[in-house]
Automatic annotation (TrEMBL):
Keywords: Oxidoreductase. The keyword Nuclease does not apply. InterPro entries: 6-PGluconate_DH-like_C_sf, 6PGD_dom2, Mannitol_DH, Mannitol_DH/Oxidoreductase, Mannitol_DH_C, Mannitol_DH_N, NAD(P)-bd_dom_sf. The keyword Lipid biosynthesis does not apply. Residues 287-475 form the Mannitol dehydrogenase C-terminal domain. It comes from the Bacteria. Residues 30-278 form the Mannitol dehydrogenase N-terminal domain. This is Mannitol dehydrogenase family protein. It holds the Pfam family Mannitol_dh_C.
Length: 490
C-alpha cells in the first residue's frame, strides 16, 4: 500500500525516493509565499529545500498563503500531510521522485486576510513572494498602470485594513511594520512577467499612495522588489498524477510533476537578506532582463504559438503538438524567423540554441502539459508574450506573417469551436468579450484588432493588419491545418 505522506512517515517512503534530511521541526519561517500552486512547489520551494538539504537556510522556511476561496482546498490538502510535497520528475530516460519540505505552514483563507497581514507584519518574515499568474497584477491594459477601477482594487482602497487582494494585504502589512518601527520586507514576484519586480513595486506603491502618501514613499524608498526569471514546465495535477505518486508508493493528495529542467535568474536586490540560492543553481545577476526576454519570447510566446493551433486541431498536449505534421513546422518557422531575431544572447546561450533547447523540452512525451492549460488566459499571455515581439518586428521592418497568423489563430479559437465542430469551453477571464469580438471578426477581421485593451494602436500597423485579416479569413474558409502548412511552405 502507498505510504500516506507526513513527517511521521518520511522514513517509511520507498527506497530511492529522496526526502528531507534536515530536522523540519527546527525550521523557522522567513518567507511568506502567496499562491501555492504547482509551479511554486516545483521551483522556488525546491531551490530552498535543496539549500536546506545542504545545511543552510534553516531560518528561511516558507509559510504558504492564498487570497482566493479556491485556495482553501490546497491548504486542506497540504496541512493534512504536514505541508510536504512529492515532486515527480518526468523524463524520457526515467521517472524519479523527491519529497520537498521547505514549507512548514499554510495560513487560513479568510475574508479580510487578517492572518496573512499578521504574518507579513512579523519582522521574522523578510521576503513575501508571489505566484499569482501573469494576469493577477491588476494591470490596466491601456495605461500599463494599476487598474484602479477594478472592483477588487476599489474595495481595497475603501477598506485598507481588510483588503481583498494580495497587494492590499502587503500594503497593510507594510503599514503595520512601519508603525511598529520594523524594516520592510522584500516583495518578490515569481511570475512570468517582463520586469516582474518592477510591476510588483508599481502595483504595491500605487495602491499604497491611494490611501497614504507617506507610506507609499516609505515602501518605495526602503523596500525592495527584485526582478527575476523563472523557468520549469510544470503540468497541472489531476487524477493521473495522484495515481502516479501512488504507483511510486506515496499517498500524496497534491503531488507535482515537472520536467528535468529548472532555471531561476534573480536580481540581487533584497532589503532584508535572502537565502543563498546561488549555492543550489540559481543565477544571481544584474542583467535579469536579457534572460527573461529570451525565456518569455522563445518559451512563453512559443507556447502560445502552439496552444491555439493545438486547440483548433483537437491536439491534447504540447508534446503531441511537437509531433503534429502541420503544427510543428509552423512552430519552428515562427521561432526561427520571427521570434529569435528579436532576442539577445545571454552568457553561455545564443537565442537560436535556446530555441532548440525549448523545442526539445516541449517535445518531452513524459510531460503531459495540456494545450488547454497553456492556452488559458490568452488575453494576458498574448499581450505579455507575443505582442512585444510583434512590435519589435514591425519597428525593424521584419516579417510579421507568422506572428500575424499566431494572433489569427487566437481569434479563431476564441470563436469557441474547433475545426472538427467540438466546442471549446471558456478558457479566459475575459472569454465572453473575446467570443463576441471573435464572431464579429469572422466577417470583419479588423473587429478583433480593434480591441484596444490588447492591441493598442497595432490595428493601424498596415503590414500586421493586412496579414492578420488575410490569415483569419483563410482559417475560416480553408481550415487550420491547410493554413499552417501553407505558411510553413512559403
Amino acid at each position: 500500500m502507498p505510504v500516506k505522506l507526513s513527517n511521521a512517515t518520511l522514513n517509511d517512503l520507498p527506497e530511492g525516493v529522496l526526502r528531507p534530511t534536515y530536522d523540519r521541526t527546527a525550521l523557522t519561517p522567513g518567507i511568506v509565499h502567496i499562491g501555492l500552486g504547482n509551479f511554486h512547489r516545483a521551483h522556488q520551494a525546491w531551490y530552498l529545500h535543496r539549500l536546506m538539504q545542504a545545511g543552510g537556510a534553516r531560518d528561511w522556511a516558507i509559510i504558504g498563503a492564498g487570497v482566493r476561496p479556491y485556495d482553501a482546498d490546497m491548504r486542506e490538502r497540504l496541512l493534512a500531510q504536514d505541508c510536504l510535497t512529492t515532486l515527480i520528475e518526468l523524463d524520457p530516460a526515467g521517472t524519479s521522485a523527491e519529497v520537498s519540505g521547505a514549507m512548514i505552514d499554510y495560513l487560513p483563507i479568510e475574508e479580510g486576510n487578517a492572518s496573512l497581514i499578521a504574518a507579513m507584519s512579523d519582522p521574522a518574515i523578510r521576503i513575501v513572494a508571489l505566484t499569482v499568474t501573469e494576469g493577477g497584477y491588476y494591470v490596466d491594459r491601456v495605461t500599463g498602470g494599476l487598474d484602479v477601477e477594478h472592483p477588487d482594487i476599489v474595495h481595497d482602497i475603501a477598506n485598507p485594513a481588510s483588503p481583498r487582494t494580495a497587494f492590499g494585504a502587503m500594503v497593510a502589512a507594510f503599514s503595520a511594520r512601519r508603525a511598529a518601527g520594523h524594516a520592510p520586507f522584500t516583495g518578490q514576484s515569481c511570475d512570468n512577467l517582463q520586469g516582474n519586480g518592477d510591476i510588483l513595486r508599481r502595483t504595491v506603491v500605487t495602491l499604497a499612495r491611494l490611501t497614504d502618501d507617506s507610506l507609499a514613499d516609505w515602501i518605495d524608498r526602503e523596500g525592495a522588489f527584485p526582478n527575476s526569471m523563472v523557468d520549469c514546465i510544470v503540468p497541472a495535477t489531476g487524477p493521473k498524477e495522484i495515481a502516479l505518486a501512488r504507483e511510486i508508493g506515496i499517498d500524496d493528495a497534491a503531488p507535482v510533476t515537472h520536467e528535468n529542467f529548472r532555471q531561476w535568474v534573480i536580481e540581487d536586490r533584497f532589503c532584508a537578506g535572502r537565502p543563498a540560492w546561488e549555492e543550489v543553481g540559481a543565477t544571481i545577476t544584474d542583467d535579469v532582463h536579457s534572460y527573461e526576454t529570451m525565456k518569455i519570447r522563445i518559451l512563453n510566446a512559443g507556447h502560445q504559438v502552439l496552444a491555439n493551433a493545438g486547440e483548433l486541431l483537437s491536439v491534447g498536449s504540447i508534446s503531441d503538438c511537437m509531433t503534429h505534421s502541420a503544427i510543428a513546422p509552423f512552430f519552428r518557422k515562427v521561432e526561427r524567423d520571427e521570434i529569435a531575431p528579436y532576442v539577445d544572447a545571454v552568457p553561455g546561450m545564443k537565442p537560436e540554441d535556446y530555441a532548440i533547447l525549448i523545442e526539445r523540452r516541449f517535445a518531452n512525451p513524459a510531460i503531459h502539459d495540456t494545450v488547454r492549460r497553456v492556452a488559458f488566459d490568452g488575453s494576458s499571455r498574448h499581450t505579455g508574450f507575443v505582442l512585444p515581439v510583434l512590435r519589435d518586428a514591425l519597428a525593424a521592418g521584419g516579417s510579421v506573417e507568422g506572428l500575424a497568423l499566431v494572433e489569427a489563430l487566437w481569434a479563431r479559437m476564441c470563436a469557441g469551436g474547433r475545426d472538427d465542430g467540438t466546442v471549446i469551453e471558456p478558457n479566459d477571464p475575459m472569454w465572453s468579450q473575446l467570443v463576441v469580438a471573435a464572431l464579429e471578426a469572422k466577417e470583419r477581421p479588423m473587429a478583433w484588432l480593434e480591441q484596444e485593451r490588447f492591441y493598442g494602436d497595432l490595428a493601424q500597423a498596415a503590414p500586421f493588419a493586412e496579414a492578420f485579416s488575410r490569415w483569419l479569413t483563410r482559417l475560416w474558409s480553408e481550415g487550420t491545418e491547410s493554413v499552417l502548412k501553407a505558411y510553413a511552405a512559403a
